[in-house]
């Protein structure tokens, strides 16, 4: 038996092989890339903020130059429509530009200073200044559902490069051609900016061992991952079992509970349409898809359910990202469709495509079937009808961690909304009010994370400016002269940073 | 065989039993305490900043009221002198007051806001506001070497209460009486402030199972630990293997490398005395003890070594915290003393006490004996003589993570110092210049942590104001009306917080 040295991409529409051979990288490639990344880590960490911002902007420019070719290839590899992919590319370049701004603005240095006091009793107070430093080489795992924004040059890569960490991407097997084209853009940008190419490496392959050796390599100092609970948890475990455990930032799964309160249901006739649109967006392959909706039993909620069912029946069948995702969707939804405690509504399934589905059940049944809280990737969701607000609050109490929690409430609902909010902020990274969770804004305040399994590190976000902090750790410098201090900490503040001094922002 | 229901403390000086029976808590006690803590977690998280600051100050006042009794008991249980323990109590109350200030100043909320733009194309920009929320019940493990400042009402407890997290302390078996007295102070403070007593629980016991069930309990949401690499790593592993992994903030071990550069050795004749003082402080039982000193071979460094050896010979033998620590010290130092590649210098050992020790070796031998990098608790250290700056830099490159790294340099040393600094900031949480690492300032800028094994989470600190962030995670609120927003995020900024808006601090 010989090991395959190359593999081809699969056309997501028809399962045929697409042109292009991609090397199957193995353990020795990981070793080489990780050591090379470690070799340039100190240099890259110490580059100027300006230089890293320029690199990020140049990557964005390179992506725009190749936009049509990248989008075309991604379309074939993922079955996602051109408009969506063009939007995702714009989101990816926006992310790169945001992190360029973040680097330059410099709040990421998080400078905190304690001024000395030689007269203090019983001991003199030392001069202590703290800043953030880059961790070193970072491993990033591309995600299947966002071939651009959460993959090769996605948020993890952009934030890690911004922090000054070399990046090794393990490309997702579902879109190797897209990954290779994006990696080329990054390498062209490194070359244009006269930076060593070892700062970025794309590794591809079809065996699990590739990701495992990457996470286990001693030169890797942190991991960014977006994917399934099973795959992510296995890699998380590996990262924690290393002789030197490393931070593993995994965004794994979420059911994104949504609560539609009575007055909101009465005042907003669009809710059913908005819901079906949100749960079928990107063919239901968004990690923020509303996977369960809680309503109180009432004529309004019955009308909401009926409208949603009617809309689901009108949905076209769709092609999912990969055959594996479609198989898994079929398996789970078939199980649920056969369950007498669930009322199911769906659309006719076409040849190789899958059918959107909506399930309806009671609060009592929901409580007896904890397995329904598992995320199913694809365009299905569940409506749970509660008999009382008490029942709704009880159900909210038992939910596990999620990326988002959504609340629709009109003013008459506010007392119940306030009670629910106290619980929702315990279980989600983001709370959406009178809106829908799909569509994650890439800004300064975004939190894309949450209690496990939404994230393996609930104190972090994988989207937005604060994502840079995943790749940094603080260092305190005690009594160093200006001549030896990093620029961010020097007394005359040459980087013009906002700095916290003796507990106050100056 | 019956399970012991109570245990007694051991007099650290003579091994006799001290008066006082302490309950041996088990799994059911953990379950009860954790559920009780979970039951008050939401209430405590939502108390006002003012109320939690008052609680912290009241705990400090209660400790001061009981100061003499606590110090006397701690003295018998730890063999630490009264002066040191009075200083440690002052440090403990200072910590409580610092966190009261931190809570009130409010930077810990870390408010970040993105203002909405309904006109933005292609999609409107939503209103997103982010703050930090408390994680829930926290488990804290008391440390043997700081019966007050790193134990029952130490930095972990103070920062967790400041964050709004209920605390369950697993008291260290070496000082159960001290722990019980301090816990009583905390309960009196809770009572005085009309707060539920379930916010704080002290569990005691002699079996490992107690700590294990605490870390494994589903209601526990984070852990603070200060102790050995072996014990800490075992608990870290448990925390990561839970169905829901939780953050485990362990401060495990450090050798705290110190570099004495040539011009500094020439200009500062006090170095040998300062070194011996630092390595024997607290009988060498400080986690920041300088465990290895690197010098370049020169007449000055030879003089430094000889003076240090002379001073070591004059040191009295000392009583360590526990019989276990003393046994371990003897075992390791005996091994090293028998090693022909190490030159040893010590002081006569008295009956039950142990003798301070200083080892000297070459860079070459150091490289061939990686086991010497393991921390040995107690008053011993090692001087490593390098033949060249290149050799010194190579040794620095191979060191593992440490709490601190220290550099003594005069101006002529600055070029070498700068090279070393680039490496030291990769391996330590704090860099000390022309000083000694023992004595950790409790301020705003302190970092007490560092790459593994110094800390299991190098992005955190276990001392200083920023330690509060270990018990918090961010939540983003999208499009919530002021009526439903937490105070920290309301439009008119009722808490008068420093907030970051659209990337700028307002």
UniProtKB/TrEMBL annotation, chains A, B:
**Locate the Aldehyde dehydrogenase domain: which residues?**
6-450
Check the record and name the InterPro entries matching this protein: Ald_DH/histidinol_DH, Ald_DH_C, Ald_DH_N, Aldehyde_DH_dom, Aldehyde_DH_Superfamily, ALDH_KGSADH
Domain of life assignment: Bacteria
Q: Which residues form a coiled coil?
A: none
Any GO MF annotation of the entry: oxidoreductase activity, acting on the aldehyde or oxo group of donors, NAD or NADP as acceptor
Q: Which residues cross the membrane?
A: none
Keyword Transport on this protein?
no
User: Pfam families per the record?
Assistant: Aldedh
Q: Which UniProt keywords apply?
A: Oxidoreductase
Q: What is this protein called?
A: Putative aldehyde dehydrogenase
Q: Which organism is it from?
A: Vibrio proteolyticus NBRC 13287
* Highest classification ranks of the organism: Bacteria, Pseudomonadati, Pseudomonadota, Gammaproteobacteria, Vibrionales
């Amino acid at each position: 038996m010989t090991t395959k040295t190359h593999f081809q991409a699969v056309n997501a529409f028809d399962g045929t092989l697409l042109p292009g051979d991609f090397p199957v990288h193995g353990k020795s490639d990981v070793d080489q890339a990780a050591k090379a990344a470690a070799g340039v880590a100190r240099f890259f960490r110490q580059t100027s903020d300006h230089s890293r911002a320029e690199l990020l902007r140049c990557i964005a420019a390179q992506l725009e130059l190749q936009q049509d070719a990248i989008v075309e290839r991604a379309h074939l590899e993922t079955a996602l429509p051109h408009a969506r992919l063009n939007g995702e590319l714009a989101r990816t370049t926006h992310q790169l530009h945001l992190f360029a701004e973040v680097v330059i603005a410099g709040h990421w240095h998080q400078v905190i200073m304690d001024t000395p006091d030689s007269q203090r009793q019983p001991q003199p107070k030392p001069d202590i200044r703290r800043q953030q430093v880059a961790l070193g080489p970072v491993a990033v795992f591309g995600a299947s559902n966002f071939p651009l924004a959460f993959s090769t040059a996605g948020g993890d890569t952009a934030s890690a490069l911004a922090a000054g960490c070399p990046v090794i991407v393990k490309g997702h097997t579902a879109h190797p051609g897209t990954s290779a084209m994006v990696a080329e853009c990054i390498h062209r940008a490194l070359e244009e900016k006269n930076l060593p190419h070892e700062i970025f490496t794309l590794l591809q392959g079809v065996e699990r061992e590739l990701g495992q050796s990457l996470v286990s390599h001693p030169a890797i100092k942190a991991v960014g991952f977006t994917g399934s609970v099973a795959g992510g948890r296995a890699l998380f475990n590996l990262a924690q079992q290393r002789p030197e455990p490393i931070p593993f930032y995994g965004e794994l799964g979420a059911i994104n509970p949504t609560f539609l309160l009575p007055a909101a249901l009465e005042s907003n006739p669009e809710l059913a349409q908005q819901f079906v649109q949100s749960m079928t967006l990107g063919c239901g392959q968004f990690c923020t898809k509303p996977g369960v909706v809680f309503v109180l039993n009432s004529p309004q909620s019955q009308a909401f359910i009926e409208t949603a069912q009617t809309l689901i029946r009108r949905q076209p069948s769709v092609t999912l990202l990969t055959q594996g995702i479609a198989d898994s969707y079929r398996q789970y939804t078939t199980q649920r469709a056969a369950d007498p405690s669930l009322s199911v509504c769906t659309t006719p399934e076409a040849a190789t495509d899958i059918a959107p589905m909506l399930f309806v059940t009671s609060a009592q049944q929901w409580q007896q079937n904890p397995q329904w809280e598992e995320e199913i990737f694809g365009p299905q969701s569940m409506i749970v009808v509660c008999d009382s607000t008490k029942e709704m609050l009880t159900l909210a109490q038992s939910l596990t961690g999620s990326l988002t929690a959504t609340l629709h409430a009109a003013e008459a609902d506010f007392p119940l909304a306030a009670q629910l909010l106290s619980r929702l902020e315990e279980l989600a990274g983001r709370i959406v009010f009178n809106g829908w969770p799909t569509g994650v804004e890439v800004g300064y305040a975004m939190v894309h994370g949450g209690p496990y399994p939404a994230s393996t590190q609930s104190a972090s976000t994988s989207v937005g400016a604060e994502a840079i902090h995943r790749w940094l750790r603080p260092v305190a410098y005690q009594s160093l002269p200006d001549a030896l201090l990093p620029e961010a900490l020097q007394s005359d503040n040459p980087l013009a940073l906002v700095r916290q001094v003796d507990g106050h922002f100056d």
